[in-house]
Every structure is written in structure tokens, then in C-alpha cells.
Q: What sequence folds into this?
């Protein structure tokens, strides 16, 4: 077949993309609200210089904003959080020709203009907060987003795989208040249903579900109910759809088409302005991990996670996945403006509304995207 109007972007793959999809991705501020820079648990991941090949993949991906976050917990949560922050911010600084660190939402806009990769520092738990004062301390170190819980119970609330969800605790309510005061985004992706609903209600500012899918389409403990999605949207929040295979679908095949079904579901339920992307993956996905790390990763979760042979979703497991998603949304009849909103515009709006300006003694203020000023 002669594929007129389609272009090959990446030398390593024969895939071709339409001129419209290429234009949409290049024009959009693409923000992946859960995207570790590297899924690698060895010190070499952040201590060695970025290779030319990796740098080229980052530049070609079309993604500007990477929410670089991992789960921390246990008795050494604070120390582990500090080590993670230092290691990866140091990595970004040592590769400053590729990366720029994010403090304000406008830093994402600047990175887009400069064709750099903007690194949002986050943590997928809040066990590192010993008291409410710790929130401002970590904000000062560059932390811009924190989940209240990972999958298990902590002092703030219940995780998604706990047998009983007791909701947000008194300590959790104090941390939510402190996060709002500091201008740090509250995330409940791994939290249980009651804890998620409580957090939405308790937070005066909108919160995020950075990387989860819809329970109405796949009854998995890590997915969110329509009630939670509706309440999130009513407060102005945004939900990021993830490409983790067992969250997308409970059977085979599991492809980017099924991932896009979750985008459709949120858009129809609460509006296109409340859905985004949180792939929960680096550029190449989990299935390319070293075998020993891959085995250890799967072994670290309860059986309710229902891992299958693969973790990544077919068609959303490579550096060009944003272009493939744009093509799928085009096939479904979404407008360019709607696709740009899903790819990052909605999360840009949320981050501008929740992150504080670091002005001493001043109350937190949101930022308005340049196009809306």
C-alpha cells in the first residue's frame, strides 16, 4: 500500500505516522504524569551519564514533562526519599543539555520552548512525611507531587490492595492541609476507594489521580470507580490513564485500543478536560527490564495485582507511544484541541492551579497557562 501523507519518524522502527498526528504532538505540551526517567533499580541508572541513544529517544518521544516518581515506604522512608530526590535531581543537573527541573508550571512551558525534557519530582507515597512541617521541607527540596499512600496502609490512609479501607486519618488530613498550603499536588493513584474520596473532599484545591484506569471497564483494585472520577472532576481534578496491562484489561489481547477506551470513558463521564496520561512507565516499558529486576518487581506485589506474562500494553510500549495514542484518538474522532488537552493541556492547567509560587510569606497562588492569560 502507498501510505500517502504518512511519515517515518524513528530510524529504529518502520512505523509511520500521519502528518496530523505529528503536528498535534509537536504542538502539544505533552505531560506524562507518571513516567520514571529510567525503570532501573541499580545506582548506575542515575550515576552514569545519559547515553547518546537515550538522549535521542527522549528528544524524539514528543514528551516534554516527565513526572519522575517511585514508591517509598517502611522504616527508612524518609532516608530513601531524600536519596531518591538527590540522585535523580543530580542526574538531571549533570545532563542539563537534555533535562530541566520543574518548580513552577511555567517551567514546563519554558522546557517546551527550549526543546528540553522537564523533570517533575514526585513520590508515590507520603510515609516520608514525619509531621506536617516536613511537607514544606520537601517542597523546598523540589518535591511537587506526593501520593497519600502506596498500596498498603500507612499513617495517612489505606492503599488500594488493603482488605479494609478506613479512609484518610487525622494525620492524613493534616498532611493534605500542609500540601495545599505549600502548593504540592495531592495524588491518590494507589489509594483505596474511601481514602480517595476523603482526600478529594478534604482538599480545598483540586487533586490528581496521576496514573490509574476505570473500574467500570476493568474491575481491578488499582482502578477508580465512577463515583471517585466524578467527584475528582467536580473539584477540578484530572485523572491520568495508565498503560499497565493488567490495569487496562483483564484478558488478551490488551492493546492501545483498550487503553483509549478508558480515555473515552472518563471523557463521556465527566468531560474531556478531566483526563490525561500517566503511563506508569519509562520510554521503553517494563517488559524490557533486566530479567532479574523484572522477576523481583512482579514478586513485590500481592496476587490481587493479577500480573500476566507482560506488563506493558501492546502499542504503548515504546518511545513513540505518544504518536500512536494521537493516531488512535484521531481515529476516534477527537479534535486536535481535545487531543492536545489529553496529552498534557489538562494536567498543565491542574499544575498551574495547585503549585505555589515560592514567595516568602505569601499565600500560595496558582499559575495560568500562557494561552489563558
A:
Amino acid at each position: 500500500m502507498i501510505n500517502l501523507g504518512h511519515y517515518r519518524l524513528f530510524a529504529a522502527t518502520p512505523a509511520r505516522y500521519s502528518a496530523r498526528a505529528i503536528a498535534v504532538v509537536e504542538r502539544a505540551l505533552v505531560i506524562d504524569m507518571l513516567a520514571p526517567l529510567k525503570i532501573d533499580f541499580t545506582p548506575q541508572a542515575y550515576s552514569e551519564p545519559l547515553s547518546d541513544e537515550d538522549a535521542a529517544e527522549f528528544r524524539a518521544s514528543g514528551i516534554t514533562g516527565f513526572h519522575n516518581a517511585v514508591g517509598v515506604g517502611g522504616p527508612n522512608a524518609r532516608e530513601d526519599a531524600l536519596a531518591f530526590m538527590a540522585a535523580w535531581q543530580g542526574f538531571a543537573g549533570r545532563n542539563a543539555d537534555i533535562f530541566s527541573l520543574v518548580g513552577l508550571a511555567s517551567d514546563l512551558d519554558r522546557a517546551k520552548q527550549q526543546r528540553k525534557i522537564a523533570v517533575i519530582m514526585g513520590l508515590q507515597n507520603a510515609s516520608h512525611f514525619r509531621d506536617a512541617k516536613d511537607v514544606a521541607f520537601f517542597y523546598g527540596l523540589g518535591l511537587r507531587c506526593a501520593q497519600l499512600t502506596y498500596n498498603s496502609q500507612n499513617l495517612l490512609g489505606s492503599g488500594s490492595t488493603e482488605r479494609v479501607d478506613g479512609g484518610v486519618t487525622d494525620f492524613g488530613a493534616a498532611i493534605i492541609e500542609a500540601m495545599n498550603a505549600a502548593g504540592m499536588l495531592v495524588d491518590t493513584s494507589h489509594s483505596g476507594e474511601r481514602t480517595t474520596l476523603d482526600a478529594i473532599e478534604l482538599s480545598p484545591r483540586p487533586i490528581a489521580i496521576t496514573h490509574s484506569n476505570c473500574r467500570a471497564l476493568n474491575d481491578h483494585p488499582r482502578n477508580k470507580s465512577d463515583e471517585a472520577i466524578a467527584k475528582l472532576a467536580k473539584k477540578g481534578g484530572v485523572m491520568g490513564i495508565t498503560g499497565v496491562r493488567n490495569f487496562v484489561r483483564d484478558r488478551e489481547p490488551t492493546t492501545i485500543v483498550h487503553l483509549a477506551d478508558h480515555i473515552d470513558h472518563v471523557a463521556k463521564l465527566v468531560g474531556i478536560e478531566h483526563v490525561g496520561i500517566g503511563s506508569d512507565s519509562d520510554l521503553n516499558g517494563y517488559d524490557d527490564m533486566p530479567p532479574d529486576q523484572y522477576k523481583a518487581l512482579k514478586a513485590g506485589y500481592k496476587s490481587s495485582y493479577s500480573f500476566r506474562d507482560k506488563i506493558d500494553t501492546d502499542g504503548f510500549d515504546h518511545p513513540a507511544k505518544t504518536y500512536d495514542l494521537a493516531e488512535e484518538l484521531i481515529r476516534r474522532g477527537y479534535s486536535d484541541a481535545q487531543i492536545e488537552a489529553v496529552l498534557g493541556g489538562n494536567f498543565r492547567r491542574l499544575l498551574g492551579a495547585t503549585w505555589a509560587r515560592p514567595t516568602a510569606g505569601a499565600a500560595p497562588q496558582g499559575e495560568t497557562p500562557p494561552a489563558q492569560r
Summary: Residues 29-358 form a domain with the TIM Barrel fold (CATH 3.20.20.140). The radius of gyration is 19 Å. The first strand starts at residue 6 and ends at 8.
